[in-house]
Write a structure and sequence with these properties.
Elements: E1 2-11, H1 17-26, E2 31-35, H2 42-47, H3 49-68, H4 83-107, E3 111-114, E4 116-121, E5 124-129, E6 132-143, E7 147-149, E8 162-163, H5 165-168, E9 177-181, H6 185-196, E10 200-204, H7 216-229, E11 232-234, E12 239-245, E13 248-253, E14 259-261, E15 263-266, E16 270-272, H8 279-282, E17 305-307, H9 318-334, E18 346-348, E19 353-358, H10 361-366, E20 371-377, H11 382-387, E21 393-399, E22 405-412, H12 415-427, H13 432-436, H14 447-456
Parallel strand pairs: 1-2, 1-6, 2-3, 6-17, 8-15, 9-10, 9-15, 10-11
Antiparallel strand pairs: 4-5, 5-6, 7-16, 12-13, 13-14, 18-19, 19-22, 20-21, 21-22
This protein binds nicotinamide-adenine-dinucleotide.
Nicotinamide-adenine-dinucleotide binds near residues 207 and 269.
């Protein structure tokens, strides 16, 4: 049966889709959102960013209580892990946030349709659920179906011992030996969680470096720091396969002995989620990497159908999807809407955190851009000393002639928060001099950014 007609149907209620739906409702559109999972919020809220951050926080506190407080003059004994409670706290965090999105939908009068959505034709969407099949229609449809785990040949996922980040957010016990395939965001974050909780963790990375795409100097520093914490990181390691052997898993690596472990986490990237979306029905073809091509205004090859977030090109980041959702809707309603792809921050929530915005030094070298570089270590920052977290630095890259900030890369305490200042600076086209002349409260970690900006001109005060 055909439901009533809406102005906009959004397929997918992740950070791209649900934010687009809210913005559209704010702008007065009659909006429907189709989501197949019972909880709203997508991968990010349910099985991604939020639960992983809850575990990162909890495991960091555990590790600190166990090994890190002596230096502060605090002696603790009998520190024990209550894993079920830690996992419950994570689940509670997820539940409250996904319920919050449901509340926002109600408040904004967004019609929520539970079921799997697919395109029937331009402006027509079918929703299949346990209750049957419904048909919706609208002038505009936004595809925001996100991404799924990229498979790796030879690694048969069994939803248990050979799993993805989803399983790694809920292991019922601390693995004795966890092998992580891929030293990207997921591998390093979840590898850190289980290493802090007591597992031996081996990270196997195919490339000669970790965190591809991030500034290589910062990534090399990250590798040293993480190795010192106890993560075993092997680069240049080509995984040929992983198979169950009773309760164990045997991982084959080219050119070396097989590794016998008790769990494997596959984290070699994600791929766009377009299965069953009905793209053929409307004549939308995917690009060579399985993404939906879009033009100006995030319009696909079919007018009235738009795509945002992980299903299109660009970094697979929640905040990038949200920005696109807002801008796409604003374009539809007001004719204006823009995303500055040059100023999208990225954060890896290890300890210390690793954050970046703009161009890496590698990219500037490759593009033959003339640049100046200023760097400041947290070792020389008063607040970092007081926090007892002095690893890392702020690195600022500015244009050699104009001094415009081209990229900022931070590894250090709360780098994920510090990068916001750099992002605002870049959004406003700031120069390193602008950052250097901005008064920063003392003593704060952000002073390291000011000092790095001063260092661009060779005049840092505290090194
Ligand atoms: P990723 O792209 O960040 O890292 C995957 C890693 O796997 C890379 O280092 C790659 O070189 C390596 N790899 C690929 N094939 C391999 C092989 N055969 N053997 C060994 N290593 C191999 O992907 P991810 O960590 O799976 O994360 C998926 C997506 O989710 C990414 O786009 C990431 O940006 C996003 N994410 C973001 C955050 C965050 O913002 N904090 C956290 C988690 C995930």
């Amino acid at each position: 049966m055909t439901d009533r007609r809406h102005d906009l149907i959004v397929i997918g209620a992740g950070p791209g889709g649900y934010v687009a739906a809210i913005r559209a409702a704010q702008l007065g559109l009659d909006v429907a959102c189709v989501e197949k999972e019972p909880a709203l919020g997508g991968t990010c809220l349910r099985i991604g960013c939020i639960p992983s951050k809850a575990l990162l926080e909890a495991s960091e506190r555990f590790a600190e209580a166990k090994h890190g407080l002596d230096a502060f003059g605090i002696r603790l004994s009998g520190v024990e892990l209550d894993l079920p409670r830690m996992l419950k706290r994570k689940d509670d965090t997820v539940r409250s946030l996904t319920a919050g999105v449901a509340g926002l939908f109600k408040k904004n009068r967004i019609a929520r349709h539970s079921g799997t959505g697919s395109l029937l034709a331009s402006g027509r969407v079918r929703v299949v659920s346990a209750d049957g099949v419904a048909e919706l229609s609208a002038e505009h449809v936004i595809l925001a179906t996100g991404s799924k785990v990229a498979p790796l040949r030879g690694v048969e996922l069994d939803g248990d011992r050979i799993g993805t980040s989803t399983e790694a957010l809920s292991y019922p016990e601390v693995p004795r030996h966890l092998v992580v395939i891929g030293a990207g965001f997921i591998g390093l974050e979840l590898g850190s969680v289980w290493q802090r909780l007591g597992a031996k963790v081996t990270v196997l990375e195919y490339l000669p470096r970790i965190l591809p795409g991030m500034d290589s100097e910062i990534a090399a520093e990250a590798r040293k720091i993480l190795a010192r914490q106890g993560l075993e990181i092997r680069t240049g390691a080509r995984v040929l396969g992983a198979r169950r052997d009773g309760d164990a898993v045997v991982v084959s690596v080219e050119g070396s002995d097989p590794i016998v472990c008790d769990r494997v986490l596959l984290a070699v990237g994600r791929v766009p989620n377009t299965d069953g979306l009905g793209l053929e029905a409307v004549g939308i073809a995917l690009d060579e990497r399985g993404r939906i091509p879009v033009g100006d205004g995030w319009v696909t090859s079919v007018p009235g159908i738009y795509a945002i977030g992980d299903v299109i090109a660009g970094p697979m980041l929640a905040h990038k999807a949200s920005e696109e959702g807002v801008a796409c809707v604003e374009r539809i309603v007001t004719g204006y809407g823009h995303v500055n792809y040059g100023a999208i921050p990225g954060v890896c929530y290890t300890h210390p955190e690793i954050a970046s915005v703009g161009k890496s030094e590698d990219e500037l070298i490759e593009a033959r851009v003339l640049y100046k570089k200023g760097s400041f270590p947290f070792m020389a920052n008063g607040r970092a000393k007081a926090l007892g977290s002095v690893d890392g630095r702020v690195k600022i890259l500015a244009h050699a002639e104009t001094d415009r900030v081209l990229g900022v890369h931070i590894i250090g305490p709360r780098a994920g928060e510090l990068i916001a200042e750099a992002t605002v600076a870049m959004e406003f086209g700031a120069s390193a001099e602008d950052l250097a002349r901005t008064c920063h409260a003392h003593p704060t970690l952000a002073e390291a950014t000011k000092e790095a900006a001063l260092a661009v001109d060779g005049r840092a005060l505290h090194t």
